[in-house]
Design a protein that fits this description.
The chain has 497 residues and is an alpha+beta fold. Helices cover 22% and strands 36% of the residues. α1 packs antiparallel against α4 and α2 packs across α4.
Length: 497
């Protein structure tokens, strides 16, 4: 059984850059900010050097960033507190100040990998039998820091896959505070060992759903017996830090999907937002929304997080918690099963597990579904995206890691009513890195974060060598027929009579 390889491809493009705030000294953990010194030096520069720099910025920077002036002005305002009151700053000086605190970042300067695919929000202007696809991508740039990017493609009625042109302009999101359910917030505090007398008192003063401003009000309302304690600073700051991990990221409505870039925002994301697994989730009332899990990495620890979006223009980013929301690689089911949110995870770091949730935010571990079994998955196994519903069961693409840290693709078939039952599996890989596929930013890797079905065909965008995207397909019926049935399949048939 072999996947069909298509000619469509995306390669990492170092010219895709985004302008972001740069604070000299901040790039080194133990180094203090040098903002005051930089501001003083810029304001002390002769007028002719300021004028020459303005010309250079306008010629070089504005050419690549149509909204350059707004970006530089915002970054200049960010360091406004460093300007002494007696200084009057000219427009030219302000622009140069902004440039001193701005850096270009090549979003995929090092690599492009780990795609997931969902139905695009717009299916306008397509021929009969075509489907427009939205893809999320992991771009890796300087310092191995990851961002979430997007691309578009069209699956043709003739069985072809065509990537759309990618936007030459990139857009960073406008960031604002998110909100919390008090129950969710409390579970995060509990799971991380932060419940104490001060934090419990604050929780008791919060509404069922609250904002950062309401949290601040509750902090100010702490009884003096708690607020004046010498040990109150740590729990108080912990509450603020955890609350700040929920945020909204919004893009201009007229920005192209392929130009939108979700960059790290919170402290737990400092070293990357990785491997988004998107799914179009259908609520019991028929309403749909995009959901995705992704991995936040701070340089030391990882944490699974949640994205929700109605339109892939505005995104709500939130923390997940519970015994089922640990480690990397959670993948959400596209609907409730038995009245519960379900997800596949990898709690033990090496096996595929099942997790359940009442609200999609607090997850309980339900146990292992599939352990490393074959030689090509002897080191670890995990999912490759959201389960896909078929009449025969939930089809789950998997990755296995074998000798020489070789990543291969496989598949499981889970029972529709009880996804803890494995009905069938692939005993040999669907795809392994061979020939030129063995080379890349990370050698010997083929990996996906989510496939899509159209007209009975499973389309799988694949990251190869963590450096480029290729596309494969296979008929769903042929794949399921070729899988090896398990004892659980016979048990299900007997159970259902």
């Amino acid at each position: 059984m072999r996947l069909q390889r298509h000619s469509a491809r995306l390669d990492h493009d170092p010219s895709r850059v985004i302008a972001r705030f740069f604070l000299p000294g901040d790039e080194l953990t133990a180094s203090p900010s040098r903002a005051s010194q930089v501001v003083a030096r810029v304001l002390g520069m002769p007028e002719h050097e300021i004028a020459d720099t303005v010309d250079g910025v306008n010629n070089e920077f504005s050419e690549r960033h149509p909204h350059a002036i707004e970006t530089l002005a915002a970054n200049a305002r960010a360091v406004g507190s460093r300007i002494l009151h007696e200084n009057v700053v000219s427009d030219a000086q302000a622009l140069v100040l902004g440039a001193a605190f701005t850096a270009e970042y090549a979003v995929e300067g090092a690599a492009l990998c780990n795609p997931s695919a969902v139905v695009h929000p717009s299916q306008d202007d397509l021929a009969p039998g075509e489907l427009r696809v939205a893809l999320s991508l992991r771009g890796i740039g300087e310092g191995h820091i990851s961002a979430i990017e997007f691309a578009e493609a069209v699956i043709g009625a003739d069985g072809t896959w065509t990537f759309g042109d990618r936007s030459a302009e990139t857009f960073a999101a406008t960031i604002s505070h998110g909100d919390w359910a008090r129950r969710h917030f409390s579970r995060v505090l509990e799971n991380e060992g932060h419940l104490s007398d001060p934090t419990s008192a604050v929780l008791g003063d919060l509404p069922d759903r609250f904002t950062v401003l309401e949290l601040e009000s509750a902090l100010w309302s702490l009884p003096e017996q708690l607020s004046l304690r010498a040990d109150r600073r740590v729990p108080t700051e912990t509450l603020r830090e955890i609350a700040a991990t929920a945020y909204h990221a919004d893009f201009p409505t007229d920005s192209p999907l392929s130009g939108r870039v979700l960059l790290p925002v919170t402290a737990e994301e400092n070293n990357g937002v990785e491997d988004a697994r998107f799914v179009l989730f259908t609520h019991p009332d028929g309403r749909t929304e995009y959901r995705a899990t992704y991995t936040a990495y701070n340089g030391r620890d990882i944490a699974p997080r949640l994205i929700t979006s109605d339109d892939l223009v505005g995104f709500a980013m939130h923390r997940l918690t519970g015994s089922g929301a640990v480690n990397k690689g959670m993948a959400l089911f596209p609907r409730l099963v038995g009245g519960k949110h379900l997800a596949l995870s990898r709690v033990d770091g090496e096996s595929i597990s099942l997790a359940s949730s009442d609200d999609g935010e607090i997850w309980d571990d339900r146990g292992v579904v599939h352990r490393p079994t074959e030689m090509w998955e002897v080191i670890q196994v995990g999912n490759c995206g959201a389960p896909i519903e078929t009449p025969d069961g939930w089809l789950v693409l998997t990755h296995g890691v074998g000798p020489l840290r070789t990543y291969c693709l496989g598949a499981l078939l889970l029972d529709l009513d009880d996804p803890s039952r494995v009905l069938a599996r692939t005993t040999t890989p669907l795809l392994r890195p061979e020939g030129e596929m063995r080379t890349g930013y990370v050698p010997r890797v083929v990996y996906s974060c989510g496939a899509i079905v159209h007209n009975g065909t499973l389309w799988i965008p694949v990251g190869v060598g963590d450096s480029r995207i290729r596309v494969y397909s296979i008929e769903i019926a042929a794949l399921i027929a070729a899988m090896t049935r398990t004892d659980a399949a016979a048990d299900v048939v007997a159970w259902r009579g």
